[in-house]
Write a structure and sequence with these properties.
Helices cover about 45% and strands about 25% of the residues. The protein is built from three helices and four strands, in the order E-H-E-E-H-E-H. It has a four-stranded antiparallel beta sheet with strand order 2-3-1-4, covered by helices on one side. The C terminus is likely disordered.
């Protein structure tokens, strides 16, 4: 996951992540009007590569808040992310793993 400030910086980071590695956007949460957390999924090496380039773009624009990679996410953690997202009425993406 990568957390950024601003829609333009978020789009730029996501674009480069998707172009760099075989990953998909799993979910996106808007935690406040400007802060966006984007969750991506794929094999561990692809996610690491994608986060690395996304992080570089976000740092360059001053938009990086945080980032993290969970190599093998527990299904309960995954389920809680989905439930929380639905509670907050945040956009879900169709391509989920």
């Amino acid at each position: 996951m990568i957390e950024t400030i601003g829609i333009a910086s978020t789009i730029e980071a996501i674009d480069i992540m998707l172009k760099t590695a075989d990953v998909r956007v799993f979910q996106q949460n808007k935690t406040d009007p400007a802060r966006i957390t984007t969750f991506i999924t794929g094999d561990v090496s692809s996610v690491l590569a994608a986060i690395d380039v996304g992080k570089q773009i976000a740092e360059r624009t001053g938009a990086l808040v945080a980032y993290s990679v969970i190599p093998t996410v527990d299904q309960q953690t995954l389920a809680s992310l989905i439930i929380e997202n639905q509670k907050n009425d945040v956009r879900n993406y169709e391509n989920r793993c």
